[in-house]
């Protein structure tokens, strides 16, 4: 693996290896504090993203490396019309590894085809966001101890929510998974994912519009935000944005060992009162994101040096 | 209806009836100076009806375009009035510069110099997807 563009670039063995590495980093942080000394990570962020960019930067700094880059297209040569391919070639002369976020789908792939250093897709529009999926997988593993025999509920925007699509694809490779899809009719999971992933792999799933009815059976509840930027029509966004709000009353219906996840940022879909519930895992998820990115940077740099 | 035999060139045969014009457009045959005949709805024992294109010049043929539009097509290469070679075409694994990605969120929508490339992802259903954004091609 030279670069990571889609979660499907990784075999389950490679995912297991990354999770094991992340767990080792969590257990022995000192062992890794200079693992990337004298190495540079370039964060090329063509659109703002507080969490992902800071997570990558924190990951590299904790490995003893340095970071350089830009956090919006206006402060890069893209504003002058430079192509992604040329930027990737240029940055290859300065850094050892690239993390790229871009509003256009496929931009990190173009970068990976032109860079001479590894490229990590840090999100390309509504398309792929593999390090979020790795973050989610590490969180599930740390909360549940394995990926097997789990009932996982996805709630909110299942139509445009790329994190949901990627996580379903990644989890579909494990056994005895059950999926509960909770969404308004307008934001249902696209039928090609149901057909090509869930049905094709024989994963049982149910669709419902009621979070209250679904929550008692769940081992994992993955909440999502209805994203304004994915809508062409503001009216639809306003009508649908607050369909589901997870609050303490709904949490009372859930299993005592439920794990509530959210890729963040949240808006109204999880009440702040839920934060103090030990089953709320979304801030642990943020921390796990840093650790899995550390594991990924290590792996890609190791392979690049071979 | 009689169409003269060609002396040097290519006969694209067994085109699914109705696909002849599409192939004509995608192969850019309108730009040729030589004689080109499109014969539509020709009676065929095997296919019922078929289209045929005859090109009276030895021009390079893009097999990928033909395979993409109509994988059952056969090509007869004619030299001095005699068939010297025959080829069957199949669905190509990759299509480069044949069709365009129409996803407004795809990187190809803003970076004009990028080649439009599609990959065959389902041979049975003849599904091609953009290599950048994975959007399904409209055939």
Major sheet of chain B, described briefly? 5 strands, antiparallel
Total count of domains of chain B: 2
Residues in helix, % of chain B: 10-25%
CATH superfamily of the largest domain in chain A: Aspartate/ornithine carbamoyltransferase
* CATH architecture annotation of the largest domain in chain A: 3-Layer(aba) Sandwich
Largest sheet of chain A: 5 strands, parallel
Overall shape of chain B: it is elongated
What is this structure's SSE topology?
The complex is a heterodimer of chains A (306) and B (139).
Chain A: H1 12-27, E1 40-45, H2 50-62, E2 66-70, H3 84-92, E3 97-102, H4 107-114, E4 119-124, H5 130-144, E5 151-155, H6 162-171, E6 178-182, H7 191-199, E7 205-208, H8 211-214, E8 220-223, H9 234-240, H10 248-251, E9 259-261, H11 282-304
Parallel strand pairs in A: 1-2, 1-3, 3-4, 5-6, 5-8, 6-7, 8-9
Helix pairs in contact in A: 1-5, 1-11, 2-11, 3-4, 5-6, 5-11
Chain B: E1 9-16, H1 20-26, E2 36-44, E3 48-55, H2 63-69, E4 74-79, E5 82-88, E6 94-96, E7 117-122, E8 127-130
Antiparallel strand pairs in B: 1-3, 1-4, 2-3, 4-5, 6-7, 7-8
Description:
- The complex is a heterodimer of chains A (306) and B (139).
- By secondary structure, chain A is α/β, with parallel strands linked by helices.
- Chain A has helices at 12-27, 50-62, 84-92, 107-114, 130-144, 162-171, 191-199, 211-214, 234-240, 248-251, 282-304, and strands at residues 40-45, 66-70, 97-102, 119-124, 151-155, 178-182, 205-208, 220-223, 259-261.
- In chain A, the strands form 2 sheets. Chain A has a 5-stranded parallel beta sheet.
- Chain A is globular.
- The model of chain A has no long low-confidence stretch (mean pLDDT 94).
- By secondary structure, chain B is mainly beta.
- Chain B folds into 2 domains: 9-88, 2-Layer Sandwich (Alpha-Beta Plaits); 94-130, no CATH class.
- Chain B has helices at 20-26, 63-69; strands spanning 9-16, 36-44, 48-55, 74-79, 82-88, 94-96, 117-122, 127-130.
- In chain B, the strands form 2 sheets. A 5-stranded antiparallel beta sheet of chain B has the order 2-3-1-4-5, covered by helices on one side. Chain B has a 3-stranded antiparallel beta sheet with strand order 6-7-8, with helices on one face.
- The two termini of chain B are 31 Å apart.
- At the A-B interface, helix 4 of A face loops of B.
């Amino acid at each position: 693996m030279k670069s990571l563009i889609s979660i499907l670039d990784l075999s389950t063995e490679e995912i297991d290896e990354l999770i094991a590495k992340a767990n080792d980093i969590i257990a022995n942080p000192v062992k890794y504090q200079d693992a990337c000394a004298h190495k540079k990570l370039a964060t090329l962020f063509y659109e703002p993203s507080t969490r992902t960019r800071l997570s990558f930067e924190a990951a590299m700094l904790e490995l003893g490396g340095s970071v350089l880059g830009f956090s919006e297209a206006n402060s890069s040569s893209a504003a002058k019309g430079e192509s992604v391919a040329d930027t990737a070639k240029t940055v290859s002369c300065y850094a050892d590894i690239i993390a790229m976020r871009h509003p256009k789908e496929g931009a990190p792939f173009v970068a990976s085809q032109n860079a001479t250093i590894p490229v990590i897709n840090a999100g390309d529009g509504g398309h792929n966001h593999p390090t979020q999926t790795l973050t989610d997988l590490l969180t599930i593993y740390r909360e549940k101890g394995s990926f097997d025999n789990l009932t996982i509920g996805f709630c909110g925007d299942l139509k445009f929510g790329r994190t949901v699509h990627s996580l379903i694809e990644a989890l579909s490779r494990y056994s005895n998974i059950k999926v509960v899809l909770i969404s308004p009719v307008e934001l249902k999971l696209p039928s090609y994912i149901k057909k090509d992933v869930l049905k094709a792999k024989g994963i049982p799933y149910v669709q419902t519009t009621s979070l209250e009815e679904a929550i008692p059976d769940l081992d994992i509840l993955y909440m999502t935000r209805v994203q304004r930027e994915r809508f062409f029509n503001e009216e639809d966004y306003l009508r649908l944005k607050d369909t589901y709000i997870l609050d303490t009353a709904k949490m009372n219906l859930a299993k005592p060992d439920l794990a509530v996840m959210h890729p963040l940022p949240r808006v109204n879909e999880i009440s702040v009162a839920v934060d103090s519930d030990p089953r709320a895992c979304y801030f642990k998820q943020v921390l796990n994101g840093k650790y899995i990115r550390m594991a990924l940077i290590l792996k890609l740099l190791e392979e690049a040096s071979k | 209806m009689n169409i003269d035999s060609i002396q040097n060139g290519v006969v694209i045969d067994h085109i699914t009836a109705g696909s002849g014009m599409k192939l004509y457009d995608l192969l850019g045959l309108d730009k040729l100076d030589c004689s080109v005949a499109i014969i539509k709805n020709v009676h065929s024992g095997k296919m019922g009806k078929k289209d045929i294109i005859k090109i009276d010049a030895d021009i390079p043929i893009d097999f990928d375009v033909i395979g993409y539009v109509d994988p059952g097509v056969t090509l007869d290469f004619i030299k001095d009035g005699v068939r010297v070679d025959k080829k069957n075409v199949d669905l190509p694994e990759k299509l480069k510069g044949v069709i365009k990605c129409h996803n407004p969120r795809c990187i190809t929508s803003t970076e004009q110099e990028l080649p439009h490339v599609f990959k065959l992802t389902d041979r049975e259903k003849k599904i091609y997807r953009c290599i950048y954004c994975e959007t399904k091609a409209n055939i």
